[in-house]
Amino acid sequence: MSNAENVLSPEYKEALKTLLFQLADDDFLLSFRGSEWLGLAPHIEEDVASSSISQDTMGHAAMYYKLLEDLGEGNADALAHARPAEERKNSVLAERVNGEGYYLETPEYDWAYAVVRNFFYAQAKKVKIDSLRTSSYQPLAETAVKVSMELYYHLMHWKLWFTQLLSSTDEAKRRMNNAIELVMKDFGDIFSYGNAKDAIEKEGLIAKEEELKANWTERMKPVFESLGMEVPAIPAASEKNGRNGEHTEDLTEALTTLSEVYRLDPAAAW
Amino acid sequence: MTNLALAATEEEKMERFMEKIEKGIKIEADDWMPEEYRTTLIKLISMHGMSEIMGALPEKEWVPKAPSLHRKLGIMAKVQDEMGHGQLLLRVAEDLLKPYGKTRGDLMQDLFTGKLKFHNVFHAETRTWGDAGLIGWLVDGAAIITQTDMLNASYGPYARALHRICAEEVFHAQHGEAIIMALAEGTDEQRAMIQDALNRWWNSLLVFFGPAAKETLGTSKQDVTIKYKIRTKTNEQLRQDFFTKYVPRILSLGLELPDKTMHYNEEKEVWVYQEPDWSELKAVARNEGARSQARLNLRRTSYQTNAWVRDALAATIS
Ligand SMILES: [Fe+2]
Ligand SMILES: [Fe+2]
How far does A230 lie from chain B, in Å, by closest CA? Predict the structure, then answer.
C-alpha cells in the first residue's frame, strides 16, 4: 500500500480517517481528564508522575490529529477544539468525569477510578498500538512506534498502583472493586470501530475487534491471577457507542471547558 | 561547672559556624547550626515549597482551557514542573525539621491552619487566559529574580535545589512570554486581555518582593537572611532589578504601565514608583486574599479525599 495521499482509494481513506479520529479523540479526552487532576493527586510525587503521563497522552492525540490534518481534514487545533460532541469518536470511558464536582470548584475526585480507568485504558491502548505497528498506513505505523515507547511506562505506572491498592486495606479493595465495576460498564465500545467496523477491518489498518479483545484479556490475566481475581468480561456492547458519536453529558461539559478560550476567536493565533 | 563548659562549646560552635558562613563554606543538613539559622531556613524553604505547590493552582485553572494543543502541552509541563519544585523543596525542609520530629504531613497541617504561609501572588484570582500568560512571564520572572539572588545560599541543599529550579524557571518565563507575545501581536481583544491582566497583577507583583523597610509592616526577615548569607540583596534592590528587567519589555510590547507616575531617576539611578497597597500582604497573611480560602479548601479537600490512598500505601509498605 502506498502512502501518498493522492493514491489512497476513497474507501481506504474514509476508514483510515475514522480510525484516526477514534484514536485521537480517545487520547485527547483522557488527557483532558488527567489535566483536571493536576495538583490534586494523592501525593506530590504522584502529581508529577501522572501529569507527565497526561502530557504524553496529549502529545499522542496531537500526533493523530496531525495525521488527519495531513489527510486534508483541516487544522489539528480545530479538530481537537471545535468539533461538536456528536462528531466525536472517543469511547465513553475516556469522557467520563473524574468524580464528583467541577475542577474549578472543590471536586472530590476518585483515585480508585483514576487508577482503574487508566490501567485498563493503557492496556487497551497497548494492544492497539502493538497491532498498529504493522498498520498498512505507514505514517500510522511510525506513530505507533513512538507512542509505544512512552506507553510502556504508563502501563507500568498504573499496573503498580492497581496491584498495590488491591493488595492493601479493605477500604482500598472495596473502592477498587467498585471502580472496576464502573469502568467495565463503559468498556463495551473501547475495542469497537462502530459502524466503520467492516471498512476498518478489511483495510489492514489494525487488527479485528475480537482479536484485540482477546489480547487484552490475555495480557490482564497474570495481573488478576496474582491478586487471586478473575479478569472481568468485556461487555459485548455498551448503552452508548462513542465510536458512532453517541455520548454522555460529560463530553458536552468537557468540550465546553476545553474549548472555552479557543472559541473566543477560533481564527486568532493563541 | 558542666553547664559553663557546655556554654563555652556552644559559643565555639557558633564561632566556627559563622567562620564557615564568612568563608563561603556550605552548611549541610547534618552540620551543627544555630537555632535561629535552622528556623529561618525552615520558614523560608517550607514557604517557598508550599508556594510552588499552591502556585500550581491558579495556573492549573487554565490548563484544561489552554487554547491550542501546543499551549495545552506547554502549560501542563509548566505546572508539572512547579509541583516538582515543591517536592524538591519540601524534602529539603523535611531534613531540617527532623530534630523537631516533624514531617511533610505536619507542614500540610500548618498550611491548612494558616500557620504556614504561601506567597501573596498565589492568593489572587485568575480571570482570563491573559492571566495564564502573565503568571508565567512576570510572576515567574519575579521569582527568578529573588531565587537567583539565593543561588549561592550558605545552606548547601537549598542552593543546589535552587540551581535546578532556576534552570527550569527560565523555561517558564519563556513559556509565559511566548503566550504574552502571541496575545500582544493578536487582535484588539487579545491585547486588551493582557493589559487588563497586567493592571490587575501589578500591585501583587510589587508586593511580592516584600517591604523596603521593617517599618512598613513591623516585621522583616531580610536582615537575618542577609546576615547568614542566605541571600545578598534587600527587598528593594530586588524590586529595582525587576523594574530594570521588565519595564522596558512591558513598554516594547505596546503595553502601558499601570503606574502612571513611574519613571527612572537617572541621577539617583533608581526607579521611582507609587508605593503598592501593602494591605494586600496583611490580608493574604490572614489567608483573606481573593482566592486564599478557595485554594486552601481545594488542597484540604483533596488531602482528605485521598486519605484512604495514603493509608493503603502505608499498609503495603509496613
Ligand atoms: Fe517553580
Ligand atoms: Fe515557575
Answer: 22
